[in-house]
Amino acid sequence: MTGTLFNRKPSNGDHRWYANLRSSMKFADIREWCETSYTRYRHALDRDFIDRFRRDTPKRFSELFFAAAFDSAGWSPIDRVRHFDLAYRLPTGGRLLVEVTTPEAQSSETWHEEQKDNFTFYSADSDSLDAALLRLTSACKGKADAVNGSQLNKDDYIVIAISGVQLNQETPVVPSMSGSAPDFIRAFLPIGDMYMRIPTGPQLNDQQSNSGYHFNDSIRKSGSASSVDRTAFVTSLFEHVHAVAYTPLFSTSLTNPHHQVGVLHNPLAIWENEKPDLEMGWEYSVVMHEDSFDVRRRKLPDAFED
Questions:
Q1: What does the pLDDT look like over 56-74, one tens digit per residue?
Q2: For 10, 66, 196, 220, which has the most beta carbons within 10 A of its beta carbon?
Q3: CA 111, 112, 114 angle in degrees (round to 5)?
Q4: Residue 214 pLDDT > 50, yes or no?
Q5: Closest CA to 253 of 177, 305, 183
Q6: pTM of the model
Q7: Rg (CA), the chain
């Protein structure tokens, strides 16, 4: 076994993902990507990253991914900043500070699984997606609370980077990061299910079909009467968090990793300058009106479609 991350003897403390990555021939490409990425970005990672990687593989894999994504997007790293995983220099002279979080998969009770004819069949509904979105909301809040007391400069742009790798690998329900209104932004904005109006009756030829999204300011907890607000970015709750970057993290496609990242900028964050484009695959901004809002997007030409 060659390399740095995978060259140690197996240990009882190894994460099951690490054990699988280390031993399986089908993961040779991923092992090589991890080794190459660690060599390239080790200066930006924790000193004990190697030990943490084998014990907590999903989270450390996500850190490697976002380090690679910001690098491939063209950002230049600066010295580490306390309480943040990654740090870069903004064109304005301020700092782009990134904290990475990797929520655990939602309970298997939030979808139905059936074994038949040597295949596994899954079925899920809007409640299943809500359970996944709650993971994003909770992960963002946890990190937002953690960095709130940090010694920050007024021109620091704070990004909570959320990896959906555990949702992607362990559940059949993964929030999308692309499209006109991707799932992940619904964890932070009061956007409900999509609707479509189709004209019927004698006036059929005089009317046009139209579609949109229902207003929904809460996410219901599965199996509970309680709910969680999905209004984080239309209230002042996270005014110190400037954006959320999210990826489902498809490990089978690690070329140009920034193409599979979506970014939602917080319209109510405290920021005196023009919001920076993070140069990720999908970029979403929110325009606030008196009693409504619009979501606008920018897509890189070759950005990943999930």
A1: 999 999 999 999 999 999 9
A2: 66
A3: 150
A4: yes
A5: 305
A6: 0.89
A7: 21
